[in-house]
């Protein structure tokens, strides 16, 4: 417990907050003594946490951030930043900015707004429409941030992948919600929204814990999303054609003067 508290104090000191300067300095001295006595074991562990994310792990994390951002952007930003701020995960690349208290507060506030808006029939579709211009570029930026500016080539590849996955999940979410909103009862909206909340969190956890399993699951889910979106798009087009046919028949039935 002391180790986590010292890490938290050091993080506050790093971002410019000094609630107890003496405690921070004392924690830093204790951390330095512990590292010296252990022969650099703490530094070795941190290095393993960062270098242990090989290319497959980094790509899995980038894919998870991009895909989950397509339907739950703010929970992705807040959760990843919280994991980094608490020291549970050593964030790679340019994702360290997500740990800043201001960004955590902003993403947490927007998370609360989205959590409520996404569970109200009609409001959820309007919210999706407003957020559609933000989720795809944000998903691309988060995916690119996994590799940071030091690896421009892989950051570009990750951005393209993250943006495409965000667009895929955004299209699937929007089309399925439009179909769900044809039902007068609100329980289906709440259920679908809770599933999306859980899926976004689960995707990030699976990408961090089991990147290869996540990669296989993501391929299956993305293919299923393409199929569902295509089928629903055909359904929407068919419904529009039927409406036009009904209005055309009614116009023909009217007496001509």
TrEMBL record:
UniProt key word Transmembrane helix: yes
Domain of life: Bacteria
Key word Secreted present: no
Record-linked InterPro entries: DUF4126 (IPR025196)
Transmembrane intervals: 49-68, 73-95, 212-233
Residue ranges of domain DUF4126 in the record: 59-228
Alphabetical keyword list: Membrane, Transmembrane, Transmembrane helix
Pfam families attached to this UniProt entry: DUF4126
Stated name of the protein: DUF4126 domain-containing protein
Annotated source species: Comamonas terrigena
Taxonomy of the source species: Bacteria, Pseudomonadati, Pseudomonadota, Betaproteobacteria, Burkholderiales
